[in-house]
């Protein structure tokens, strides 16, 4: 018989209200589905942040895989209804325990071992099976002591204050460091850039053309009042440059620096395109590693925008 497991993590500020250490979701003869903590079998569900949906009693791998996906959706719907959250690890780094590692640890521990992977894992039922997660590895970025001292001393001498937009942008930039996924980091960093943008008016000819479109819309009796009003509001916004144009103009202030091997305005366009892909419901989500690399370079990009006069007074 085949089984499935779907691990997920809950944030510590929103936990389950179940006091047992296992909760049955389905009990139909051989077919069983239950919710349990990952790791400590005696831990109560209400105290757990790492949990697993387990299913057993399926005749084929395909059936177990389909049921795993179905029960993930069941939990997602239920969590939304009671205002809870779960990270199923779709955008997290992959567990680095290899097949060879599974064999090694199985021999070492005296019972079968499989890697603890995100998403739906299907496996054959076998006594004593354990799941092993790779240790979490996090890097730490720390400037040299000399550089830290010199930058602080120069900043104190310059006293280059942040304006209101820059303060909001710095809060968003800093908040991105606390985000666990590359997606959320990139989105917060693009939000930080957006707060810095001051959109400029388009050319006189462009504004005249927009005004003509607004008047044509206003006089179009084939449209309903809500349609006319909505279109007019959208058209009025066209009197100013787009977010993309404003962003590229701001990015050019960082020239001749490059980011991910690209000119600042080209790099900004690439990041803003990625932001649109992440937020506009594309089912085929971009590769996590691509987003991670882009977010790392965008972090430097935003930091340089916020460094003010220190960027030129204290070059790299």
Report on the architecture of this protein.
This is Apea-like HEPN domain-containing protein. It comes from Streptomyces griseorubiginosus. By secondary structure, the protein is of the alpha+beta class. The protein has three domains: 2-132, no CATH class; 145-199 and 242-313, no CATH class; 204-237. The chain is built from eleven helices and seven strands. The longest helix is centred in the first third of the chain and has 21 residues, at 61-81. The radius of gyration is 26 Å and the shape is extended. The N and C termini lie far apart (61 Å).
Secondary structure elements and their pairing?
Elements: E1 2-9, E2 23-28, E3 31-37, E4 50-58, H1 61-81, H2 99-109, E5 113-115, E6 121-124, E7 130-132, H3 145-158, H4 164-176, H5 182-196, H6 204-218, H7 225-237, H8 243-251, H9 264-279, H10 288-306, H11 310-313
Parallel strand pairs: 5-7
Antiparallel strand pairs: 1-4, 1-6, 2-3, 3-4
Protein name: Apea-like HEPN domain-containing protein
Organism: Streptomyces griseorubiginosus
């Amino acid at each position: 018989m085949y089984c499935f497991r779907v691990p997920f993590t809950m944030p510590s500020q929103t936990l389950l209200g179940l006091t047992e250490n296992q909760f049955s979701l389905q009990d139909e003869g051989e077919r069983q589905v239950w919710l349990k903590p990952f790791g400590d079998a005696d831990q109560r569900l209400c105290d757990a942040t790492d949990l697993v949906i387990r299913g057993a009693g399926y005749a084929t791998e395909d059936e177990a895989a389909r049921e795993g996906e179905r029960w993930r959706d069941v939990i997602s719907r239920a969590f939304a209804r009671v205002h809870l959250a779960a990270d199923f690890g779709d955008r997290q780094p992959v567990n680095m325990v290899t097949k060879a590692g599974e064999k090694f640890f199985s021999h070492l521990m005296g019972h079968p071992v499989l890697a603890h992977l995100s998403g739906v894992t299907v496996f054959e039922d076998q006594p004593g099976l354990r799941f092993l997660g790779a240790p979490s590895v996090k890097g730490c970025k720390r400037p040299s002591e000399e550089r830290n001292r010199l930058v602080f001393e120069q900043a104190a001498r310059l006293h280059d204050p942040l304006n209101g937009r820059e303060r909001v942008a710095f809060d968003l930039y800093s908040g991105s460091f606390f985000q666990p996924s590359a997606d959320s980091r990139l989105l917060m960093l693009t939000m930080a850039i957006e707060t810095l943008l001051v959109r400029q008016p388009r050319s006189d000819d462009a504004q005249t053309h927009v005004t003509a479109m607004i008047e044509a819309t206003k006089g179009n009796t084939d449209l309903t009042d809500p349609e006319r009003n909505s279109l007019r509001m959208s058209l009025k916004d066209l009197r100013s440059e787009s977010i993309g144009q404003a962003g590229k103009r701001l990015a050019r202030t960082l020239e001749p620096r490059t980011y991910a091997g690209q000119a600042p305005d080209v790099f900004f366009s690439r990041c803003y395109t990625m932001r649109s892909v992440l937020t506009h419901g594309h089912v085929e989500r971009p590769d996590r590693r691509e987003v991670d690399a882009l977010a790392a370079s965008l972090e430097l990009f935003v930091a340089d925008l916020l460094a003010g006069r220190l960027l030129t007074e204290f070059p790299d």
